[in-house]
Write a structure and sequence with these properties.
It contains five helices and three strands. The protein is mostly helical. It has a domain of 69 residues: Arc Repressor Mutant, subunit A (Orthogonal Bundle). A three-stranded antiparallel β-sheet has the order 1-3-2. Strand 2 and strand 3 form a beta hairpin. Helix 1 runs antiparallel to helix 4 and helix 1 crosses helix 5. The longest helix is centred in the C-terminal third of the chain and has 45 residues.
């Protein structure tokens, strides 16, 4: 079993490719055979197989054989782990931006108060 950091590295590496993101987007609509996943792309069958292997190795998709069809399905739980990791940083930056807004608003209020006091004297 991969550690969480290794899993996240594999997930983000898999998500770095637009073809793989498009495959995941299609699988978010439901399971699909490999042929259907390959149809929108102008690449070879071995290239599609490689993309699917990268997604499977990252844990983002599952594959099964049903009769003569190779069916792929999305494994959203792995995406949830990546989302949680990103969420931690979103909260961090949101907090920093809130602090910046508060600082700017306080500075603006202080400048306005100082400006009023100097014009009254």
């Amino acid at each position: 079993m991969k550690s969480t950091n290794d899993q996240l590295s594999a997930v983000f590496a898999a998500l770095a490719d637009p073809t793989r993101r498009a495959i995941l987007a299609r699988l978010s609509e439901g399971d699909a055979p490999v042929g259907e996943l390959a149809r929108p792309f102008d690449i070879s069958a071995p290239a599609i197989s490689k993309h699917l292997r990268v997604l499977a190795d990252a844990g983002l998709i599952g594959r099964e054989i049903s009769a003569r069809w190779r069916i792929c399905h999305l494994r959203a739980d792995v995406l949830h782990e990546a989302h949680n990791w990103l969420e931690m940083y979103r909260r961090h930056w949101e907090s920093n931006l809130d602090n910046l807004v508060e600082f700017v608003e306080n500075a603006h209020t202080t400048d306005a108060t100082t400006s009023v006091n100097t014009t009254e004297t």
